[in-house]
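Weekly sync notes, structure subgroup
Attendees: PM, AL, DS (notes)

Item 1: joint prediction request from the bench team. They want all three components modeled as one assembly rather than separately. Inputs as received:
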Amino acid sequence: MSLWNASRDGTLMGSCPICGNKLIGDTEKGEEVCPTCGYVTYAPADQGPEWKAMDLEEKNKRVRVGAPTTLALHDLGLSTEISRTMRDSHGRSLDPAMRAATERMRKWQSRARTSTSEERGLSNVLAKINELCQTLNLPDNVAQTAAQIYRNSAKMKVAKSKSILGMTAATVYLACRKCGVSRTLKEVARAAGMEKGNVARYFRLVLKEVEKEYVPPPSVEKYISKLINTAKIDPKVEHLALTLSRKTVDSRISSGKAPAGLAAAYVYLSSVLIGAHLPQREIAEFAEVTEVTVRNRCREILDDYVIRQEFGQPS
DNA sequence: ATGGTTTTTACTGCGTC
DNA sequence: GACGCGGTAAAAACCAT
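Output from the run, pasted for the record:
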């Protein structure tokens, strides 16, 4: 049975609360997914498998009426879990021995609630995905999207005999792109402790075999906002940078260029125009590109501007 | 594998504080 | 002199074929 062409049209199809696009239904588990931003929602509940892991503790937690079930856990969040934060109940971090013990407990605990080896593997990877999302400070919807992607790749046997770490990093990165959250491949790789190139390989694989359809990287505007946030720059600069970038959007200067570099250039130019005048050095550092790249993009933006001044409005 | 494109590295020169 | 900035050449990385 195919996963994606089985969309239920009509009554159940809502629109995405984030970007407003029509949601696509996935009959397997009853969630609906936004094709553009990756937002995942849930259809009405009465679907057998969801009850599979019910036991006393779930009753106590009153899952059914409480928080929504989550795709990021192999049993859709319907059982107990041991936290991955590696801190005790007072918030102190655990010593290595205790960490190992906790790790074992978690493993056994998850064995206790899973039966088949596939499910065991799945829960392992999903835990890894959550972990990685946490260290990257990613919002929940990204973690869930990543989980969904991994579920799909598991079903399609793409994940078979692949490095767990690689698959984890790749799905998380892909989820970021689907959700429009600007994390670079570099950042994801660093957080996962992998080489960028390796993550890229897995990413291409997942993109080709599972996603089937190109997911564009976050827009320059997303990078601008992120840059402003992480570097704690005056929001006024952000505003100017965004309007500037919209003026030149999809004119030839952006094609094939790293969006981070362009964003850095817009932010730099804006900071100069506004009078804040941040050094290229700093902006380049936060954007994780070099000053040279910032300069090159600046020059191109300015050239583009001059051309349009001289030859009237854009082509 | 390869060739074209982009980014980085490393270095130099200029003006200003 | 230190700093920010602009430029360049060559190496490295990236991407489509």
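Discussion: Chain A is about 55% helix and 5% strand.
Action: AL to compare against the crosslinking data before next sync.
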